[in-house]
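ugh ok fine here u go
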Amino acid sequence: MSTLPRTPSFRLDGQRALVAGATSGIGLGCAVAIAEAGASVTLVARSADKLEQTVRKFRDEGWKAEAMVMDISDVAACESMLAARAPFDILVNSAGSTRPSPATDTTEADYDLVMAANLKGAFFLTRTVAKALIAVGKSGSLINISSQMGHVGGVDRALYCASKHGVEGLTKSMAVEFGPHNIRVNTICPTFIRTPLAEITLKNPDRRRWIEEKIKLGRIGEIEDIMGAVVFLASDASALVTGSALMVDGGWTAD
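structure:
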């Protein structure tokens, strides 16, 4: 009798994960999900106080966690800090920013801020983590939190869309480049998720109505909707998945 196949493990025991933007919203949800799955998590953010509070909560749950105060758009500082640590098996980059406005009103300062946080930071952080893995011959799973807006356009979203389309491009290219090293690179593309960052848009009745009409499942996303997706992409359950965008958009991009 032939042996039946077995589902690859979703567990992350013994893995070291770096989660950027880890003190709130989607980033916090991703950090919790990965810690629950057994990984040792280094939480990255710019606020030392929020980081320490979050790390204490993780440790109270019995999870392995430590803090790293870092601005991922500061490439030199980021590279220096990561060079002093062992390579990370998992990267989740959820750091980012948005400045919703009509394209005609978008300022150069808005452009520089959003691109630095969303595109420059994602490019160099992903590259830095990959280089460290390549140097020691280790495999890894690198995940950028992108957006459905990396695949479509949206009202008052020209700048944000440009940054997230860029993230999709760098992810595909790095997946091709790092594939021979068994390093996987993917994105998760959420719809509007109920977070502090999204509140400015969700408070606008016209925008909220537009959003709910576009989401085929008829509801705003919750942080929990992202958590299973990140564990899947971080784990051996997705061992043949790279260069892909995992849509968690309630069907927004289906038509």
